[in-house]
Amino acid sequence: MHPGATRPDKSPSLWPREHGAISMLAQPAVCALLIAWRWHWSVLPTLIVAAAMFLVREPLIVLARQKYVWRDPKPETPIARRWIVALAPIIALSGSLLLLRWQLTWLTAFAFGSLALTAYAVWMTVHNRQRSIRLQIVSAFGLTSTGLAVSLSLLNSITTWACWLWLLSAAQAAAGILLVHARLEARIAAKTRKTESVAFFRAAAWMQAALIPLGLLAGFLSYWLTAAMLLPAAVHAYELKTLHTPAAMATPLRTIGFRAMGLSIAVSLLLVIGLR
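-> structure tokens emitted (276 positions)
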């Protein structure tokens, strides 16, 4: 390539870049395996279909944007079609294998929920509402349901501990989502010098407060579960208190993301200890 030539653009990637969403999907499944401390072959298609449904969302968004938003053909459109062609049989085969283990009622419920959540996410994203708090919290409850699915595969039923794992994992994820929105609102206001909306801050504060009674209620099962809710409530409360300090404003988002991941792993470990 001669010096004056431009380097060709890389092919668009449809791999998810939402590390928080990947964590919400994976951690409850791993927790369920650790709590039950057993294995069944049906766990494998369960995890595969969950991952495939997660991966198919971005290609569907691309195709929907190409149909309803973009006027000209985009290079990612044929890539999205190939992704869907590859993922569709994986989803169908894995779902069919689960018929050998799951009751049809449960399989239908999970399939309907997954399809509804995917359709909702695609619709909201096409309408540029992918940052909607409602969408992200609904997605948190959907993604963290992998613990319920693994419980079904392992024990052929949704156990009490699986319900608690789902509820507490989703609550912690929702609290983190609201904190992210409050932080972004504060940074945008600081950069643009516009008046900061307090709605996100209040919502985040209320959600951290809600973790406390939830943790106390879970404490009737194990005090480790109380700790699993009080830990993020305390950490998030401190972050909200220091949100507008120069040090907090200067902290790179990547560093904040690693902190959030570490906190999420710590909460997951406490949930495993409390529910075993």
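The chain has two domains: 16-158, 159-276.
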